[in-house]
Amino acid sequence: MSSDNALDYATRPLFDAMAQIFALYGWPEVAGRLYAALFLNGSPLSLDDLAERQGVSKATVSNSLRILETLHLAHRVPASPSGSGGRPRLYYQAEANLMKAIQELIRYNARKETELAGQGIAETRSRLTALLDQNGDPDTMAQAQSYLETLHKFDSYLKWGQRVLWLVDSVERMGRFMRAPAEHPEASPSSPDRSGKEA
């Protein structure tokens, strides 16, 4: 087995796992594989590099990279001059914290799921209410009323889930705020010395 084939064999489980995780949430498997490639490489890779490594078209890579950017799983880094007078090549780097990346993927999809569920609940509630206003067949009215009461419980669980997501996002934002001075000390206000003057 050649060195390249041995390396492909050794890293395949991660590529397959990321592809399956993305597929679980309805995203293209290739987007998961591209994230794995960026994650393992560590340093930034260009669109051309990724297309060659994964054996897919540049258009496919471009579409998948947009998905990764939307999910905050990858970001562009300063462009490198092409050296031929053409447009500079774009490079991409993965979110290095794998668990954070997976959490972001789950959180993004949880938001979409609660949004879709909320829309479905609102429309169904509106239609059931309209049906009850018609005062039709008693059995149908009783069933509609039962559905409406069940829907109210479902809506309560959904709103609880939305509050949890809001809380998680708030904690994440607070964490970034608290880490900012340590990561960017130049942005922190100057500390006063013992005489009360700023250092």
Q: How many DSSP E strands?
A: 3
> For the CA atoms, what is the radius of gyration?
25 Å
Note the beta-strand portion: 5-15%
3D shape: elongated
> What low-confidence regions span 5 or more consecutive residues with pLDDT below 50?
187-196
* Largest sheet data: 3 strands, antiparallel
**CATH fold call of the largest domain:** Arc Repressor Mutant, subunit A
Number of domains: 2
Helix and strand run? HHEHHEEHH
Brief account:
69% of the residues lie in helices and 8% in strands.
Report on this model:
With 199 residues, this protein is mainly α. It folds into 2 domains: 3-96, Arc Repressor Mutant, subunit A (Orthogonal Bundle), CATH 1.10.10.10; 100-183. Helices cover 69% and strands 8% of the residues. It has 6 helices and 3 strands, in the order H-H-E-H-H-E-E-H-H. The chain has a 3-stranded antiparallel beta sheet with strand order 1-3-2. 14% of the residues are buried.
Q: What's the topology here?
A:
Elements: H1 3-24, H2 29-41, E1 45-46, H3 47-54, H4 58-70, E2 74-80, E3 89-94, H5 98-133, H6 138-183
Antiparallel strand pairs: 1-3, 2-3
Helix pairs in contact: 1-2, 2-4, 3-4, 5-6
Please supply descriptive tags for the structure shown above.
Arc Repressor Mutant, subunit A; 3-stranded antiparallel sheet; 3 strands; mainly alpha; 199 residues; 6 helices; 2 domains
